[in-house]
């Protein structure tokens, strides 16, 4: 055999071997179970993405050290950076093909979860969403997709529930006398929450509406919006925001002396982000944000198994971050990963059909898991809105505190209606 | 129309913000013929400088402004020597890839050093407004606007009448002929780049009491600054100021009358419309982009 031919054969075999190694990912040795964690770690969405990864890591360590791992194995992660939808899809493919994971969890953002879950479906791996609220995620008949958090419809539902059942009577108005202005950043997250809130407010309670007004969250000026809002004079502003736009809006609202009786938001961004309080201190007082439970929560209202994991998680977050107050990203990621552990322990396998059957058969009442959540997935892979208990928090003296439902908290909502800007102390 | 005074004020103040960023960009393009895609990131670094000086040393942003000028100039000089100098005579493709790469590197450096949190310089006077005829003037924005106008006028004067300015213009017109006349063109490029970065660094400090800062904060301003620079005529400072005000007017009035979701559509339609009629921009000269090539 000629030397050249030998070289070609040797390099061909080496190439095939290398290629096979690259394409065919491997689970770690027995004793460990690896899943993919996909979050935006760079770019505009990285604030929340990093919080989610930290939440996953805290819960992973807790599961491994105190709750026996998953399926009796130590849980380990392969992490991917989903900076945008294109990267979300390519990283999901990499995690499945090269890291060999059978489950990918992430991606928190409604701009990312659609692309990531499609890619996961093509690789025939399970996509376990813990945070994104775009309703379309679970409406595509994909058998591999599951979501532990409520969807945008649920956020809108809860916000209107709070407005109708709590704010209306404190404002001395009937629900059909309330005028709600809808303002939102224009991602699928903002639109889905806003549209579901509008639908319920109008159809169920006959509330009057102003707007909706949508904007790009990187906008540099919201004064024109404020001028329109001032002219419309709504009772309540339903504002879904990211981070920088909430800071811009609040500063400009104060400059324009925009008076509204209440501001209601949903989610861990914007008014729900601790950064909002850091930016304004006591000047942040007043807005409400629908979130996971914050300070004031009465954990004793949970079921015993829920109390156990909730306390352990809170201790672990405090040990890791030094913070008494949990960030929303920690709670969504940690809460979602805990439900995944329950599902894997019940299924005892990551085979899609058996795993899916186990997930659909989970039936845990409110108060059973982290955040006081319960579990009951429907055929679309969506956890039940009614089981995923949510809470209204309010900025009070530089902190977000739980104010509703009142039976779960020691704090009470203040400044209803919101007074002049300099009197919210 | 009761909103009219406020719409005019918002236009002026927002236009001032855009002009502040566009001035340095158009200066660099005018002399070096390089489109600096990392301009927004130098803005972001200026904002962080103001934030950390305020958070750690309790420096008022306007005090930081004074310190920021030599710091930004030094950063500009170093970035020219380290990154731009080898590619200043290279093809446009190489320049684009280099400045885009610099942009991504600076964004991610900020992400690693400062995290992705949106931070805000909350001065004692952040909410102080002056109200005249029903319009609210944010003090920090008034200062930014005034400095934008002063900076444009100052740079215009400097370029027109100072010896260094004449040397810079000569280099912009024909770099080979300038070299033959004994001008150290490399030094001129370094000074121009550093002055441009000092301008945008100062702009960042001035924006810190107005907008939150985070690693990609520059992107939301710089796209509009590019539009203003092209619209005003590449390399024309007064043109950039007027174009920045025009873009702000379309943005503010469009948001109010049609809807906020439409504002990008509106100012980009204006951009396309003007370029169809005047391909060199409002005040630019035809073929100016080829000068000095």
Essential attributes:
heterodimer, A: 425 residues, alpha/beta, Rossmann fold, 7-stranded mixed beta sheet, 5-stranded parallel beta sheet, 12 helices, 12 strands, B: 293 residues, mainly alpha, two-stranded antiparallel sheet, 2 strands, globular
Strand-helix topology:
The complex is a heterodimer of chains A (425) and B (293).
Chain A (H helix, E strand, L loop, with lengths): L2 H21 L8 E8 L6 H21 L7 E8 L3 H13 L5 E4 L6 H10 L3 E4 L15 E3 L4 H19 L8 E7 L2 H18 L2 E8 L7 H10 L3 E5 L3 H12 L6 E5 L7 H7 L7 E4 L12 H18 L6 H20 L4 H10 L29 E6 L2 E6 L21
Parallel strand pairs in A: 1-2, 1-3, 3-4, 4-5, 6-7, 6-8, 8-9, 9-10
Antiparallel strand pairs in A: 10-11, 11-12
Chain B lengths: L3 H29 L6 H19 L3 H24 L7 H23 L14 E4 L2 E4 H23 L1 H11 L1 H6 L4 H23 L11 H14 L4 H21 L5 H15 L16
Antiparallel strand pairs in B: 1-2
Helix pairs in contact in B: 1-5, 1-8, 1-9, 1-10, 2-3, 2-4, 2-8, 3-8, 5-6, 5-8, 6-8, 9-10, 10-11
Total of DSSP H or I helical runs spanning 4+ residues of chain B: 11
- The fraction of residues in strands of chain B falls at under 5%
CATH superfamily of one domain in chain A: Response regulator
Number of strands of chain A: 12
Structural overview:
The complex is a heterodimer of chains A (425) and B (293). With 425 residues, chain A is α/β, with parallel strands linked by helices. Chain A contains 12 helices and 12 strands. Chain A has a domain of 178 residues: Response regulator (Rossmann fold). Helices cover 42% and strands 16% of the residues of chain A. Chain B has 293 residues and is mainly alpha-helical. Chain B has one domain. The longest helix of chain B is centred in the first third of the chain and has 29 residues. Classes of the chains: A alpha/beta (425), B mainly alpha (293). The interface between A and B is large, with 40 and 43 residues.
